[in-house]
Write a structure and sequence with these properties.
It contains ten helices and ten strands. The protein has 222 residues and is α+β, with helices and mostly antiparallel strands.
Length: 222
């Protein structure tokens, strides 16, 4: 997520940042001084409990300690329009978790029914609850993950067989694991299942065998 930091450039940006002391483009004037783009981004992402007891984003600085907006006087929009949480916003006034949540709903909703298959509900909840919503969103927006989830969304029945029909991937294994953990699919012996798939494919790859009659077999042995 973090952009590589450019080298301090006093020729272009003569005024130093009040926080890091380096010379970068200054993007905000806050009570503790003018701060650069890097420190601004870091401030938006600083969360914790302020000395006043407020829990949330702590973009301000008082005596070097991160502080909430109320205590520091820093003006910053970190209020999610959807869930009301105080968090770094992703887009459209929504926090990362709300955007992740909307993405999961969009991918797992069957366009024909306008609903998420009830069997997939635990998958949807688990994906929405991922620990780090920003990494989660990056993961889910990968083409192979998006494809798997949209395929799953339109599957008429969710079963081991319907999962087997999707391209093999770690994402597929992960989704299968979630369904089994939540009792939506019976537990099965994955090693045995993999062996069966492998042996079916191995048999398919063999050249066709001409049908031998019992007399051919006995004469072949002589
Ligand atoms: Zn800075
Ligand atoms: Zn505070
Ligand atoms: Zn939100």
């Amino acid at each position: 997520m973090s952009r590589p930091r450019k080298v301090s450039d006093p020729d272009t940006w003569p005024e130093e940042c009040a926080r890091c002391g380096e010379h970068h483009q200054l993007v905000a004037s806050w009570p503790d001084g003018r701060i650069c783009g890097y420190c601004y981004l870091a401030a938006k992402r600083t969360t914790g409990t302020c000395s006043c007891g407020h829990h949330g984003v702590l973009p301000g600085r008082i005596d070097g300690q991160p502080t909430c907006r109320g205590c520091s006087g820093v003006k910053l929009n970190v209020d999610c329009l959807t869930c009301g949480a105080e968090d770094e916003l992703h887009s459209g006034g929504q926090c990362w978790r709300c955007v992740l949540s909307a993405t999961v709903d969009r991918l797992l909703t069957n366009p024909h029914t306008g609903a998420i298959h009830p069997t997939l509900a635990p998958v949807a909840s688990a994906l929405k609850a991922m620990n780090r919503p920003n990494s989660g969103l990056t993961w889910i927006n990968q083409q192979h993950v998006t494809a798997l989830l949209t395929n799953l969304a339109v599957a008429p029945v969710i079963s081991h067989d319907s999962l087997d029909a999707l391209p093999a991937s770690r994402t597929r294994d992960y989704v299968r694991g979630l369904l089994v953990e939540h009792g939506a699919l019976p537990r099965r012996d994955e090693l045995l299942a993999r062996f069966t798939t492998w042996s079916d494919q191995a048999l398919d790859r063999l050249p066709p065998v001409s049908t031998a009659t019992p007399s051919d077999v006995s004469s072949a042995g002589t």
